[in-house]
Amino acid sequence: MIDAPDEDSFVARFGDLYENSSWIVRAAWAGRPYADAAAFIAATARIVREAGEAAQLSLIRAHPELARRFGVDPQLGALSAAEQAGAGLDRLTEREFAEFRALNEAYRARFDMPFVICVGEAGGKVAIRAALERRLTHSAREECDEALRQIDRIAALRLKGRLAS
Does this model's pTM top 0.90? Predict the structure, then answer.
């Protein structure tokens, strides 16, 4: 069961599941207790979908750009840094780093938001790069929807890790 004795404790425990967006978990407090992780993620996903386009874009934009160097990007928090390191994005060659930077810049220019992918499920830096290239062909609406699906997957993996510890 997912619960806490009070709202502040609930947010303190789960607030970082969504990058710099604890408002989602705060809103989920009203629906607790949650029977399991799937019920909790379904509830938070619903909160995000019902929040409206401005809040959704704010959530997406709260995510750091992929393949940035830890200590260089102030948005790259501990959870994101660990996830990116697990996918090898902290060990790019200079050429790979330049290629990711160029793709990230093209993506941001096209969609006005960072590329978001669940690196824990993406299959490594080669697969992430291929997804970035492929998703550059999406429409803005398709890409916003995909980014939100990826954010749900990120939150689910983070929650799984939190519950295991």
Answer: no
